[in-house]
Predict the 3D structure of the following.
Amino acid sequence: MKPIIIAIDGYSSCGKSTLAKALAKKLQYAYMDTGAMYRAVTLYILNNKVSVFDLNDAAINQLIDKINISFKRDENGNSITLLNGEVVEEEIRGKAVSDAVSEVAQIKAIRRRMVDLQQKAGAHKKIVMDGRDIGTKVFPNADFKIFMTADPKIRAQRRYDELKAKGQEVDFEEVFENLKMRDKNDTERKENPLVKAEDAFVLDNSHLNQEEQLQLIVEEIEKRFN
Ligand code: DC
């Protein structure tokens, strides 16, 4: 199969990264979690108490120059995010970052820099990238675009179960409200909002398990690129 770029976009808690990781493993491609990048920037801002909304573009660029985001793999092949060389994978999934990230991700100058890094990472193709604007902005010419969606209540339930399994004290209504707020921020922001690319393959996984989704997408790739 010729080397391709696979762009996966969609709503929060749709299982984008689960599918992206499985697909990357199957094809022996690189995987880039762009949400983790916005989360790592948010963590840096919170840790350093930067009043980011008061900064102009030049100051934001200076700030981003101080931030180095990288990824490594653990023994199970999972992608681990590093912020300036330190593992932050767990911290960036915590409540403080989750509550703040969608606002940080609205800042134009931050997005521009992240998109730049993402485009560089895909320069040689053979990559699966997931996010909100991959098929529309980062790689508008991606070979295969997938737009993932699922019923909001089902997504909230998945997120709730995930947090519970991690031992966090959570309330379903709170998780549901947070998810709706993130959907709203993602779809209504001015800069690169979440929108389905016209040529994207829509995957509604409300009633599909992980294996079924992977199988469906692998079949679609074989149909298109073999
Ligand atoms: O996929 P996630 O929940 O880890 O994403 C975290 C936040 O970053 C979420 O608010 C959406 C935003 N995001 C974005 O704006 N653009 C991307 N390409 C990826 C994520």
